[in-house]
Amino acid sequence: xxxxxxxxxxxxxRVGRVPRHGYCNGKPGEKYGEAMQIGCGQxxxxxxxxxxxxxxxxxxxxxxxxxxxxxxxxxxxxGHMKEIRRLLAEGKTYEAADLAxxxxxxxxxxxxxxxxxENPEDWEIPIECFFRHSGARxxxxxxxxxxxxxxxxxxxxxSGEICVYWTDERGxxxxxxxxxxxxxxxxxxxxxxxxxxxxxxxxxEPFNEEGEHKWEKMSLPEGVLWKAESEQDAIVFEGFYDRxxxxxxxxxxxxxxxxxxxxxxxxxxLFVRAEGELLIGSAIRHFETYVPGCGRKVLEEARxxxxxxxxxxxxxxxxxxxxxxxGASVLELAGAETLAxxxxxxxxxxxxxxxxxxLLEKMYDAGRFFQIVNTGELPPMIGQWNxxxxxxxxxxxxxxxxxLMKPYFAFIEKxxxxxxxxxxxxxxxxxxxxxxxxxxxxxxxxxxxxxxxHEFYTAGTGWMYHEFYYYYLxxxxxxxxxxxxxxxxxxxxxxYCDFLTDTDADGNYxxxxxxxxxNNPVGHGPATVNAVMDLMVCREVLENLIQAVRTLGLxxxxxxxxxxxxxxxxxxxxxxxxxxxxxxxxxxEENYNHRCVSHHYGVWPADQITFEETPELARAxxxxxxxxxxxxxxxxxxMHRLFTAIRLGDREYTGRLLHMLFEYGFVNPNLTTNHxxxxxxxxxxxxxxxxxxxxxxxxxxxxxxxxxxxxxxxxPAGKIKGLWLYTFLKxxxxxxxxxxxxxRAELAAIEGQEVTVGFGETVRACRVxxxxxxxxxxxxxxxxxxxxxxxxxxxxGG
Length: 798
What we know:
Blueprint: E1 22-25, E2 36-39, E3 43-47, E4 53-60, E5 64-66, H1 81-89, H2 93-107, E6 130-132, E7 136-142, E8 149-156, E9 161-168, E10 171-179, E11 186-191, E12 197-205, E13 224-230, E14 234-241, E15 249-256, E16 261-265, E17 269-275, E18 277-287, H3 294-326, E19 330-333, H4 342-351, H5 357-373, H6 389-393, H7 395-398, H8 406-414, H9 416-427, H10 460-475, H11 478-499, E20 514-515, E21 527-528, H12 532-552, H13 559-567, H14 615-627, H15 635-648, H16 651-663, E22 674-676, E23 679-681, H17 684-697, E24 698-701, E25 704-707, E26 717-725, E27 729-737, E28 742-749, E29 753-759, E30 763-768, E31 771-772, E32 780-784, E33 789-796
Parallel strand pairs: 25-29
Antiparallel strand pairs: 1-8, 2-3, 3-4, 4-7, 5-6, 7-12, 8-9, 9-10, 10-11, 11-18, 12-17, 13-14, 14-15, 15-18, 16-17, 19-26, 20-21, 22-23, 24-25, 26-27, 27-28, 28-33, 29-32, 30-31, 30-33
Helix pairs in contact: 1-2, 5-17, 10-11, 10-12, 11-12, 12-13, 14-15, 15-16, 15-17
């Protein structure tokens, strides 16, 4: 595709137009993945920023077209589990996965859906039971001018307001707008040059765009029926599904809200003539049961909101609600204030020697902005649970937005009945086993195949509940601990109680069948024994559960069984170089060239493995992390390696991975991120970058904090406000300058405790509230009462 050349606004004219906490581009988007992404959780607007042929794609979080009339049940493997385990114990890993798929087809209602390939070497593709899609596209065609110049589009993260500037022979134009977090409406204002009578055509239509990858595809599928009608100053678009598939539907409405000449046109279009300013409102609503004509009520309600508050009133309200979330954590790095476009910053990154502080600061903001605008009644949930979704949400707790985790918790808990069914029908066990793909309508584990036997992926449930427990560590909310964390962990523990029945020759429990996402040992199939991730997740679940029960003073009859399972976990293995192996099973040879490092779970997201507490194991993971190639450069694999390097203090590898992410096409000019270099827009990096940068500044686990563990040579100076640590502490503000050799942090205690405080730098002197403290090996013990605030200052030097 040949791209149009745009004349970007010169630097001096950008003053006052480019927000510190936001970004700007010198050209508009030409496809969906290049659009400015704004929203309020329930409603999204992807805005291309085209001056004369603007496109805005509207989405709603619940637009999931079912692709089957009836979702297949979990595969009925419980009665065959003994045979599956026998095959695995004999090393017949391919046969075990084949048997499970055959049973699903022949006995489990998956026939006709799970297609067995004619060539055994070909992939067997798992079932997809839904299709995520957009609502409609608004086209805004403005009479073109000649000699367009001084183009700029901006996004203000603090308010969610976007602005598009350009100049032509008629004068300077401005189109701006935002999606109200409180009112679920998109408000736009077109500021027309003085003395100009603007002529526009507005049109609502299905969105279809060529070249989209299936993972990022938002085009309207054939299974969505629709109609669009125009009236005097508005357009109503209604979409709905075949009633045999689903009763759901939705409505998208657009209207003009300021004095203008309007005339309805054909096929959902509206002719508009205006002078001075033109105000345009839009809204989208989802309906569990679609009723023809429902769009009229949406139009009436949304129009009343805009009439009551106007652009300025809604923007003030937006700055209070959306702005409060963004303001909970603010990062400002030395040298990061800039008027440069992201295109210019990325070019500078390619030319320079170090990491651009401007890009680091903007990605911190962009990741938090992503979670705010994509969290409504549902959490962000693009891709699979764990290595996709859990990357996308992992920054909320630590960067001061724990309230955004509540939809994540609620979505998981509503699916507990289906999770119990998965455990019962697949394994014949009590407790819960989660699905692999978040499905809006159910939690059944139906997405699997012989190539990817996700039905054996039992570790995913524990990773889901990791975020529950870490919410508690950040907030100290014991009611949440008692009512949500403990019940969920007990259900996972109940599964392990029934699942762990067989032992090896040394009396250690056998974890089988397993799936280590999504790798195979050399010469073996994907169904395996003793995947290390499974062992680490089981350990984390049981240790957190035991600690929670003791914290709450509960009496649990299963306590002895939990402790017995912990004592009989299989020992981990290392390769000839001392690197941690992915399976704790001596018969398996490592397949190193793989995108995933699931066996690093004990370092991140869990905190079982540290150099302070488990130095030999930490060294084994260090070697494993450096030894593994990136296979196909899948971004989620890069991010897991990056978190591992940060937590283990491997600064050199941390720097290498960050350079790769910012220089090899993972970051786009609109600050979205890609699954692969330069292709497939996907939010794993975007959602997790706030946690990445936060953990470079502070590592925390219960009873231990390390300040500035990963900033040397990467983030030499800066200031951050608002970090919630995984040990009932908050950093209200921290500032540092490694060249000058100092740091200062204001800490607030959520709970009374003793915390060992260490540093990522060599400390010459340290003070707490102005009083010198004695260091022991570069650390000291900080004693705080609940609610106490302290100021910590340190001077660095050899």
